[in-house]
Amino acid sequence: MRGHLEETLRRILAEAVTTQVQDPRIGFVTISEVRMNRDNTVAKVFFTVMGDEDDRATTLAGLKSCRGFLRQQIGDQLRMRLLPELRFIYDDSLDRSFRLDELLSAPSKLEGDDDEGESSDAPKAEGD
């Protein structure tokens, strides 16, 4: 049941943020996940946004300012006794995956050190 509720909240919030929120601080944002606490009073809303740290901070401020509107959207679409408090958290998993990809695709310094070690062990020319 919890997984279904979390996915439904994610869908409602994602649609509202992309189609109904008019705040210019909120750029290209994606709601990636929603996690509810045990008693469904708090929803941690994970989001990603294209841009740098400043864009993330600006988007976070915009999302925080429209919390009431977003809770209203949830209330309009779901029948819940209490609407959860929305806590927005930047989802850095995409950044971590890009960084990991960079590390895996970059040539390793250790490989370069091994090549140097092999060249110094190479037999010397006959005149030496």
Walkthrough of the structure:
The protein has 128 residues and is an alpha+beta fold. 52% of the residues lie in helices and 17% in strands. It contains five helices and three strands; from the N terminus they run H-E-E-H-H-E-H-H. A three-stranded mixed beta sheet has the order 1-2-3. Helix 1 crosses helix 3 (67-77). The relative contact order is 0.14. The mean pLDDT is 84.
User: What radius of gyration results from the CA coordinates?
Assistant: 24 Å
Sheet-strand content, in percent, reads: 15-25%
The outline comes out as globular
The top-level CATH class is Alpha Beta
Fraction of helical residues: 40-55%
Proper CATH architecture: 2-Layer Sandwich
Mean pLDDT reading: 84
Topology order in helix (H) and strand (E) letters: HEEHHEHH
Low-confidence stretches: none
Distance between the termini: 79 Å
Question: How does the major sheet shape up?
Answer: 3 strands, mixed
Give a topology summary.
Elements: H1 2-19, E1 29-36, E2 42-49, H2 53-65, H3 67-77, E3 85-90, H4 93-105, H5 109-120
Helix pairs in contact: 1-3
